[in-house]
Amino acid sequence: MPRLTPISDEEAQGSPAVRALFEKDIAKEDEVLLSTRISSYRPGIAAAHKALGGSIKESGLIHAALRSLVKVRIANLIGCAY
């Protein structure tokens, strides 16, 4: 059982900030990511987290292959299928 229930599309309609986060995911990924559905309980923090991740990605300081390995390793450490 998940610790937090992901925010549904219907629930997102009640908050302009959450709706905006969902729309950005759909535009970029063609779906709303599970991480967005969970982090959207605090839309301000979710937006800042996405901005930080985008800045790291755009900086080019961490090679894409290493970034992928880090994601897989973290998912493994927390018991999350990736």
Question: Could you please describe the fold and organization of this structure?
Answer:
The protein is mainly alpha-helical and 82 residues long. The mean pLDDT is 91. The protein has 5 helices and no strands. The two termini are 17 Å apart. 67% of the residues lie in helices and 0% in strands.
Number of helices: 5
The largest β sheet comes out as: none
Low-confidence region ranges: none
End-to-end distance: 17 Å
**Strand count:** 0
Shape category = globular
User: Structural class given helices, strands, pairing?
Assistant: mainly alpha
Gyration radius from CA atoms, angstroms:
14 Å
Strand content: under 5%
List the helices and strands in order: HHHHH
- Calculate the mean pLDDT score and round it: 91
Helix-residue proportion: 55-70%
Topology:
Blueprint: H1 9-12, H2 16-29, H3 34-39, H4 43-59, H5 64-77
Compact description:
By secondary structure, this protein is mainly alpha-helical.
Which descriptors would you attach to this protein?
82 residues, mainly alpha
